Structure formats: structure tokens, C-alpha cells
Amino acid sequence: MQAAIWSAAMSAFDCIAIGLAICDSTGAVQFLNRTADRIVRERDVLLVTDYGQLDTVAGDAPSLSSLFQNLSQFADTNKGEPRALVTAIPRSSGQRPLTLIVRFAEGPTPSTEPPHVLVLMLDGNHWVEARESDLYHLFAFTPAETRFANQLMSGKTIADACAALKISHSTGCSHLRNMFKKTKVHRQGELVALLLRSIGMLRFSASKPLLGKALSVVDALSGQNQAKLTALIQRDVDSIS
Questions:
Q1: Whole-angstrom distance between the N-terminal and C-terminal Cα of the chain?
Q2: What is the mean pLDDT of the chain?
């Protein structure tokens, strides 16, 4: 039962496109969810070294070990404060940085062992796409309006969205006016924010596998994920009993 609950919780992170890595205090990866696995395989912002440790890619990016050290120092000097750090990690490609939230995994009871570290990854570069049926049921969007909305949610301007869909600017503006009326908003930014809050961040299919240089390490981790997650669960269960 405990394993099933934890497995469902890990799947929930994938549904909202949040990468999750669980590392030990040295940075050795104990678990990657599908979203984190995709980010690591891209090797643009994070990677798993040949020694199985999570680290950054870009030369100007802080190392994960330095972030873990800063987290420990923050925890030591801010007793009672939430032990978490938020930072933007630059990409080697120069695209939008990855938002990283690093915090200790706190168990139900104090432990003398070094705590595991949770690394949450928010990828603003990942394509956001809502299904036609969902936006129809929520806002009565037509298929054409849904396609236009998906372009806007991906960060495109009206002109870029029209070019991508091969429609005229006047048609795009017509779609936008109709969506404003159906959602009761008055600005493009308000529309995109509403769509993202409503359904746009959900993912309904698994990430496609991507190629990378350290696939043997990542694939080995993928095979070990279930066993390591089960061990982590059992450790929590033992600490309660």
C-alpha cells in the first residue's frame, strides 16, 4: 500500500510537468521521475555524471554540490525556517534558465543520518499543450481556438502564432477576441495565465525518450529507481514503527 501511494505521488509530479530528483547528501541520484529523466537526457542544463551524481552542464552554472552546501549552511543558521533554496540554472544552449528548488527531505521523526535532498525542476522551455476536448469542456473553445491557445501558451506572440498555424493576422485576432469573450478576460497575459492555471500545465502522455551521452548511467538509474524508491519508503515506514 505504501509503495502504491508513493508511486501515485511520483506520477502526480509528472502530470504537472515538475521534475523530481531524490539525491543523497553527496549528490548521488537515488530517484528520477519521468520529467527529471527527460531533462537530464537533454544534457542542456543538468546531467548525471559517470559516478551517478546530479550536476549542472553550463560552465557559468553553480554546481549542485555547492547548492547542497549552501542549503546545509542555510539550515544551520536559520533554525525553524523552511530548509529550501530557489535558483535559476543557466542552460548551455543559452535558452531560458531552469528553475530549481532544492530542499531537504524531512522525515516524520528526527534522524541521525544525513537527510536526502529533493531537487524540484520547473522547465519553462517545455512545450505546454492542452487537449481540444479539455478546453472545449472548460471554455467551449473550438478546435481552431485551441490550436491558437496552445501557441500562445508556448510563449509565442500573436504574429508568431499566426505564422506557425498559417493563418492571417485578422483570423488570429478573431480567435483571441472569441477566447476573451468565453473566458471573461480582457488581456492576452490574463488569458494565458488562466489557461495555464486551468489545464495547460497538465501532461497526459509520457515524455518521449531523448538521446544523450551518459545514457548508460541514466538507463541504469531508471532500472534502479523502483528498488531505491522502495528502500526509501521502507526506511520511512521503519522510522514510524
A1: 16
A2: 79
